[in-house]
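Margin note: ligand = flavin mononucleotide.
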Amino acid sequence: MEFYETIKTRRSSRGYLPDKPVPEKALTRIAEAIDLAPSACNRQPVKFLFVRNPELRAKICEVYQPAWLKEAPVIAVVLGCDEKAWHRLEGDSIVPVDAAIAMEHFMLAAAAEGLGTCWICAFRRDEMDKVLGLTGSPWRSVAISPLGYAKAGAVGPLSRKNVHEIVQVID
Ligand SMILES: Cc1cc2nc3c(=O)[nH]c(=O)nc-3n(C[C@H](O)[C@H](O)[C@H](O)COP(=O)(O)O)c2cc1C
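Resulting structure:
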């Protein structure tokens, strides 16, 4: 898919076809797109888990409960590690930025494959880390996303500010 077409295609999908699996080749290409994401000092302090295991998906869905997450054949979990990350001059970790870039690579690659995603971060990280077995580990959950073929009507209307409010050209 052409790049700008992919950008226009990507939307948050909140409804999935549970019985239509994600093709292995698509999953491989999406993984390679994630690996190509830039990161501060190239440290890559971010990992993705593609959770297909039904028991673990069910536990994740107890932490974040909308019905549509249960429909997704894959739940992607984004993890970050402050210990591995570059830190800003003020001392704060760059993990949220590096994770956001990797997540955008993931979502755009999925869109190019005709797959739906939805960035989710409205969950209790301590509860998510617990079900992922990360308690006491330097790795922490940052975000999750369903990955799968979206149902018809799974995407809401597009709403954005006027581009001139967001981007200013200063000559
Ligand atoms: C950092 C971030 C966090 C988000 N968290 C959630 C979330 O917890 N649950 C959810 O349903 N959508 C979440 N979203 C999706 C946004 O609501 C969505 O991207 C926005 O409304 C624009 O719609 P679009 O993605 O379809 O273009 C999140 C998006 C971002 C970028």
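DSSP finds seven helices and four strands in the chain.
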